[in-house]
Amino acid sequence: MEKPQRIDKPMVALSEHRIKIRYTGGLADENVLPGYDGATSIDGITRALHLATHAYMTGEVTTRAPAMKGASIHIKPARQGSFLFELIVLMETYPATSTAAVAIGAPMFYDFIKTAFKRATGCLDAEPETASLKKLYQRKEPPPLKKPPVDFDELSEILEGSLQDAHRPIGDEGTITSMSIGTPRTELVTFNLETKDWVNTQEESIGLEVVRGNVTRYNSLSRNARVFVDQFNRVIPIRPDGDFSIGNLPLLTWSLHGSNTGTRNKLDMRVRRVSSASGKVKRLLLVDCQRAPEQ
């Protein structure tokens, strides 16, 4: 007796989102890319989009591109002009972070990708712009049986490796001048020499230093925070390092409370720097902290 043939059901796409990738300058203006660097770049931007889409759909940050459930990504071939191709994201289910049908709509998804890629390439103040995504991040508790959205600072750190590869053809030697990532109608983010410098991180600083500052934002799930550092006179992402004592976590919330209420809030923090290729501080790894003396 013949075995019945297995029929795989095709994925039903409830929404389709097109991400346009354009390379400009140098070889790209001749509709070509350098072989190895070009292939590495296409792979890098595809992996970055995969990781970001997975985070959007599941509310989880992962260091590897897993098999996605409820979504898939396809590549359309390059077209004439500057080197241009499209990545097509198909979604068949609602994200785990939202019960709203708007979550599979194009504006919210594109805004998520834009914010994640901008944060990962040095625009640390990038925030969601669409009302629906803003509401998702401003909500204190997710709906029943739903997950909170991912921490953009945590996601941006994970995306850096893939975006290093995406920037591979961009260089002073004139191979490629820039890349733009966008929708069919709107540019979302541009990659150039400045963003390449940002994603190509130096080694973490071996030595420890003490900085003073106050927490301006804290995510209790990822334990990532934002700290205004007095010595740098700016807000910098910070996260506990591997040897940070969990018992000191309440100090971060104490400092955040003081920042929100205008009361005592300064911490003395022992940290390691993580810097860009040119030495600009990107984030701090927190080893320990204590309340700064009252002045």
Descriptive terms for the model:
5-stranded mixed beta barrel; alpha+beta; 5-stranded antiparallel sheet; 10 strands; 295 residues; globular
Strands in their spatial order, largest beta sheet:
2-3-1-4-5
**Assembly classification:** single chain
Q: Quick one: how many beta strands? A: 10
Distance between the termini: 88 Å
The overall average pLDDT, rounded, is 89
Rounded to an integer in angstroms, the radius of gyration calculated over CA atoms is 21 Å
- How does the overall form come out from the CA principal axes? globular
Helix content: 25-40%
Number of helical stretches of at least 4 residues: 6
H/E series: EHEEHHHEEHEEEHEE
Largest sheet: 5 strands, antiparallel
Based on secondary structure, the structural category is alpha+beta
Percent of sequence in beta strands: 25-35%
- Regions with pLDDT < 50 over 5+ consecutive residues? none
What does this molecule look like?
- This protein is of the alpha+beta class and 295 residues long.
- The protein has helices spanning 35-58, 106-120, 131-138, 152-166, 193-199, 249-261, and strands at 15-24, 71-79, 83-91, 178-182, 187-191, 209-218, 225-229, 234-240, 267-275, 281-291.
- The strands form two sheets. Strands 2-3-1-4-5 form a five-stranded antiparallel β-sheet. The protein has a five-stranded mixed β-barrel with strand order 6-7-8-10-9.
- A hairpin with a 4-residue loop joins β4 (178-182) and β5 (187-191).
- α1 (35-58) packs across α2, α1 (35-58) runs antiparallel to α4 and α2 packs across α4.
- It is globular.
- The chain starts with 14 loop residues before the first strand and ends with a strand.
